[in-house]
Amino acid sequence: MMKWITLMLVMGLVAGKGLFGEGPILYCIERVENCVWMMEGWMEVYKRGDFPMLITTYEEFHDNPDNFFEKILNFYGIPLRQFRSVELPKNWKFNYRKGEKEEWRSALTLEQITRINDQIPDHFFEFFGWDRF
């Protein structure tokens, strides 16, 4: 869910809600329910098995990018030899995030985390193995 918060932060910036301070974060926190609604739909499709879906996480990507992409390629039946991994520079400055796992823990206040968690259904925490704090 915190990944969706990052997306919503960008949406907040695009919508002109400010570039600094709590403005963009507050804008996103107030709209977490929209992400929950969208994810609920996809989770229902996944559980019913209407069509094959692969669920991945940023943590998987962060921990082992090669395995992450191999998992995706295997899912789509793309031979690994058709994929070339590219090493990104460590000082890449084209992102608002640091790229750390669970970065939200240091970027958000306890009050903000609580407000977000209160909008996320318990079964999301169970399915994804998320901690509330």
Protein architecture, described:
With 133 residues, this protein is mostly helical. The protein has one domain (2-128). It is built from eight helices and no strands. Helix 1 (2-14) packs across helix 2 (23-29). The relative contact order is 0.14.
Structural class by SSE content: mainly alpha
Order of helices and strands: HHHHHHHH
| Largest sheet, strands/sense/barrel | none
Number of E strands? 0
Compute the number of helices: 8
Gyration radius, to the nearest Å?
17 Å
Element layout with pairings:
Blueprint: H1 2-14, H2 23-29, H3 32-48, H4 58-63, H5 65-76, H6 104-107, H7 110-117, H8 122-128
Describe the structure using short key phrases.
56% helix; 133 residues; 0% strand; mainly alpha
Task: Offer a quick outline of the entry.
The protein has 133 residues and is an all-alpha fold.
